[in-house]
Amino acid sequence: MTDLDTFRAETRAWLEANCPAECRGPVASDEDRVWGGRNATFPTPAHKLWLERMGERGWTAPEWPAEYGGGGLSREQAKVLASEMRRIDAQAPLASFGVWMLGPALLQFGTEEQKQRFLPEIVRGEIRWCQGYSEPGAGSDLAAIQTRAEDRGDHWIVNGQKVWTSYADKADWIFCLVRTDPEAPKHLGISFVLFDMATKGVSTRPITLISGKSPFCETFFDDVRVEKTNLVGTLNRGWDVAKALLAHERTMIGAMGEIGGGRPLGQVATGSLGLDDGGRLDEPMLRARIAELEVDAAAFRLAMERTGDLAKAGQAHPAIASMLKYYGSELNKRRHELLMAAGGSDALEWEGERSRGGATARDWLRTKANSIEGGTSEVQLNIIAKHLLQLPGA
Amino acid sequence: MPLILTEEQTMLKEAADGFLGEHAPIAHLRKLRDERDPDGVSRELWRAFGEMGFAGVLIPEAHGGSGLGAVEAGVVAEALGRTLTPSPFMGSGVLAATVLAGGSDEQQAAWLPKIAAGEAIVSLAVDEGPKHAPARMTAMAERSGNGFRLNGAKGFVLDGHVADALIVAAKTGEGIGLFLIDPSTDGVAVERTVMVDAHNAARVTLTDVQVDADALIGSVEGGEALLERALNLGRACAAASLTGAGDQAFQTTLEYLRTRKQFGKLIGEFQALQHRAAHLFSEIEIARAAVMGALQALDAGRDSAPLAVSVAKAKAGRVAELAVQEAVQMHGGVGMTDEFDVGLFMKRVRVLNELLGDAGFHQERMARAQGF
Predict the structure, then answer these.
(1) Per residue in A46-98, pLDDT tens?
(2) A240-388, what's its fold?
(3) A160 near A129, Cβ under 8 Å?
(4) Which of A290, A326, A394 sits opposite B282 (nearest CB)?
(5) B286: nearest CA in chain A?
(6) CA angle A133, A139, A141 (to 5 degrees)
(7) If DSSP codes are grouped into helix, strand and coil, which group holds residue A162?
(8) Where does the record place the Acyl-CoA oxidase/dehydrogenase middle domain (chain B) (predicted)?
(9) Distance CA A213, CA A368 (A)
(10) Can you identify the CATH homologous superfamily of domain A129-236?
(11) pTM, full prediction
């Protein structure tokens, strides 16, 4: 047996013994995801146990260094872990902007002290983060942010407003872009800072979306004190951190449809519409569209894996995350259009037990934001045209 | 296994691209076509393919090949897709070589070394109707005397008009048999079909063709599995060729966007074209990953390999189709001229898409495998 085979056998045995039955199978809806944090909620006590067990091994962040609480796994080992989790249909123990976005940026740009302080808490799911990027006047043109941080010696005083802050009302801390030099060209006067959402002067207001839900907030800063030790990276060069983090965010959003853990589309459709005598979905036109999507989805999963492999080998262009973001979010929108078609009029129900509160319809509407948040599809195409294709004037 | 080429595989890719770029660029295809070459394919180039070790990439070292795997065969197929080179590689080096590897010692010894050396062309005859549908095969092989009597009509037989031997798939009472047949046998009629892309195939008609029992490759019971193995390798390699052709058409188009001026600007400055190019880039990257995934799955002998192959062939086919449409459209009027190469890519991609199952065929397999 190779080392990897041994690792697979051990991982399989450990997962079998430690992944509770309640944490296997598709995640019923977005509400059932475990986000952790000070005020963490769990759909069942088993989910709490599952997070604790995985967090202890660092397997909520399998490839982070063990010294910061991560799993310390090689890329090949992490792939084995993922495939073994898929084998038993294990749910992700933790959904976390800390794991997906901030952590990788801290590993790259953070001070030793910042890494020691924040990464282990992120791995164990004890801290929930939100992202202070967009502002009313800075959407696609993100570098136009106006939130100001005034220098007061050992700290800054921050004033301004963020918007589309995901789960700001539920987050413990924020990673935030602020303008520290109003005189400099727009990309060169931005800094990347961290602060507690419980700090005096921070307030949030949820925004109700077309799904009827409020995953996003407006976030207001009114004379908020931010310690200078919470600056990540170099003063006024926060754009570099922001861009690196955006690459992780884009990869995450792109992967959303594929790591969602929902039931396969064909299964949903046959459950809803039945099979014909030949064992085919009894809706030939829909069947063809689903098959086409499943081919695209399978190919896309391989592209995500390949991009990770290229990155590990030092051969990936940083802008490749834009390709994953663009493609994955468009794919996820298509998937949910087909889920609605598969559900027919059943999927139109907006309230009540039977439809789990209109989950299918609400999830469908939620996906429309995928190609807007984290940079619109059009912004991603601009980035691909400029940085990957070197087209003139792009 | 990382989904990227190893160092050795990268060297093979550079060797294949370098060799074809020098000895068989698109001008080679044009010459065969314009001079109405009687074979439509160069035997001399096939021998050179043997000398370079490309022809026998899948053939065991004991039979003069290099004993490599699907990924390496895909590397060669992708290179052939880039230069549009007519070559017996797919028909002989991939399909026939895989079938023959399941044959007797005598059959292997008779043909594999010659294929590896680029001396022999062996064609696999499977398709019958206009679409690839091996499950609907009607060609029959009945037990007769000490062997079999074959009847049926085959089409889209790659290089069949110049084949030194044919491998014919036919139904027997017990399963599918694969029969090694000399094309000069009584009752075998071969008609060359020049295709839209100036590559060649043949229609092969078998009328009461009598063969000995030792013409059977492997066993009747194992024939279907052996055929399926060869077809899956062929499909994955066709997907690699599609990626090569689609990407080359895309690269040519990018170059045009960077140099062609209209309205006093480079046309690549227009966002309408930038976004279409960026979309196409994304599609090509995803197709490339799907092809690599399929080739590696075949090499690892995974149970999921046939499905991975269908994903690759369907995806690479649709993406290459988009790439050549965009290539002609973005080139404008010159894209419609015979003088510019982009039209040749469009033709080649149409043929590769039809070869061994189009996107519809493979999406059907996907739906079946997923139970809907």
Answers:
(1) 999 999 999 999 999 999 999 999 999 998 999 899 989 989 999 999 999 99
(2) Butyryl-CoA Dehydrogenase, subunit A; domain 3 (1.20.140)
(3) no
(4) A326
(5) A303
(6) 100
(7) strand
(8) 137-208
(9) 13
(10) Butyryl-CoA Dehydrogenase, subunit A, domain 2 (2.40.110.10)
(11) 0.92
